[in-house]
Write a structure and sequence with these properties.
It contains 14 helices and 2 strands, in the order ααββαααααααααααα. By secondary structure, it is an all-alpha fold. Helix 7 (166-175) packs across helix 11, helix 8 packs antiparallel against helix 10 and helix 11 crosses helix 12 (259-290). Residues 24-93 form the RING-CH-type domain.
């Protein structure tokens, strides 16, 4: 006994041995890295060493780690959970609940995997039947209600199932091509010097590199307009075209008895007028953009172009500024 006390006191007298003994005692001290409680705080708590960490961070309460794993998995028990320090995967085991429960688990997993495919099939099927319905309504609207019904009743059902859905697809595909841009490009390239066209389509009077008749700028403008086309606008314009064509045909071409011919003429009239207005509007916007000027940052320009919102200056600004100038 005396020899043990002497050897223990001798070990404590050595600085290195004392530090090693203290380190060993710290490592054996259990401290939960989740709640920071020690073994002395709750002697009945279950402890676990779930990863490759060493030192005091290797210990954690079983209950604390269970809550932490639940937060990481969020209800998905198959989700792997790693240690935030050493990145070791926790070994999580479940008790065996029997073959019937395993079968239910397999059915649940299979249902979870095939549900997106079922939902996608239902969605595609709904779109397909909506397209068939729209195609049938369009046929009766364009050809005539009675004539359209007789035509579809006499046709092969398989042919109808194939051709009717192509009607909305064809309308939307045709709407995605901007023929107005091609016409505008042709007019800018070849018809700018014809005096008669200046009264119909203005070409502007722009100097230098910002001339309104520059092939590269026109091409860029067309590509930008195609890139920024609204999908909802294309969709609505394409699907409303048969209805608008029918209405215009009944208003302006009443003398034509054939419903199909009347609707075709109404559609051509609508497309032509709308295209002409669109071409004119695009050209005017192009001229406005090409004729843009950046003024000097002077006091007079600030008062003239930025002082319209200041009380008492509206009348002065309107009297001195040109009406053709627009402040952006």
């Amino acid at each position: 006994m005396a020899n043990d006390e002497c050897s223990h006191s001798a070990i404590q007298g050595l600085p290195g041995a004392s530090q090693a003994l203290q380190t060993s005692e710290d490592e054996n001290q259990k401290s939960c890295w989740v709640c920071f409680a020690t073994e002395a705080d709750d002697k009945l708590a279950a402890w676990v060493q779930p990863c490759k960490c060493i030192g005091t961070t290797k210990w954690v309460h079983q209950s604390c780690l269970q809550r932490w794993v639940d937060e990481k998995q969020r209800g998905n028990i198959s989700h792997k959970v790693l240690c935030p320090q050493c990145k070791a995967e926790y070994i999580v085991v479940f008790p065996s609940m029997g073959a019937f429960v395993a079968l239910l688990d397999s059915l649940e997993e299979i249902t979870h995997k095939i549900s997106p495919f079922i939902a996608g099939g239902v969605l595609l099927g709904s779109i397909y039947w909506i397209a068939i319905t729209y195609g049938a309504v369009t046929v009766m609207q364009v050809v005539g209600h009675r004539e359209g019904l007789e035509m579809m009743e006499s046709a092969d059902p398989l042919v109808l199932l194939v051709l009717l859905p192509t009607i909305p697809v064809t309308l939307i595909s045709a709407k995605m091509y901007n023929w107005e841009d091609s016409v505008l490009l042709f007019l800018r390239k070849y018809c700018a010097k014809i005096p008669a066209l200046a009264y119909i389509l203005p070409f502007g009077n722009v100097e230098g590199d910002r001339s309104s008749i520059v092939p590269d700028q026109t091409t860029n403008a067309n590509s930008n307009s195609n890139a920024h086309m609204s999908p909802t606008r294309i969709f609505c314009s394409a699907l409303l075209l048969p209805t608008i064509s029918t209405i215009i045909g009944k208003i302006f071409f009443r003398s034509i008895k054939n419903n199909l011919h009347r609707t075709i003429l109404g559609g051509l009239t609508y497309i032509t007028i709308k295209g002409a207005l669109k071409i004119y509007h695009k050209q005017m916007l192009y001229i406005r953009h090409s004729s843009r000027k950046i003024l000097d940052y002077t006091e007079s320009n600030l008062k003239l172009y930025r002082g319209s919102n200041v009380p008492g200056r509206a009348e002065t600004v309107s009297a001195t500024r040109d009406d053709s100038e627009q402040v952006v």
